[in-house]
Predict the structure.
Amino acid sequence: MATLETLFSTEGEEVEELKETAQKPDYKKLFFEHLGPELKKVFINKKDKVFLKNFLEGLQYEYGFFDTEIDLQKAFNIYKKYADLNDYYCMYKMHVIYVNMKNLMFL
């Protein structure tokens, strides 16, 4: 069975760029805060029907939108669960988390 080290590179120019850019998006601002009240209602009502629903579920706990309290452990568990089920966006978030956590371990 492959280990995380063989699945995800933790060195190189691409990884350094990922570390730099992955923390920049504020998904709450990007997806939610700019919407007016009526569009927010539509977004909330449709969020479980879009192809990003698992990713959005994790983001809502990571960033606290959809009137959800921030819970980073719950966000992590959601990303992990759906990454294990081959959700590409959740796999991306787990990669970002893994790369940044590994970087922090060496500080």
In short: The chain has a mean pLDDT of 77. Residues 88-105 form the longest helix (18 residues).
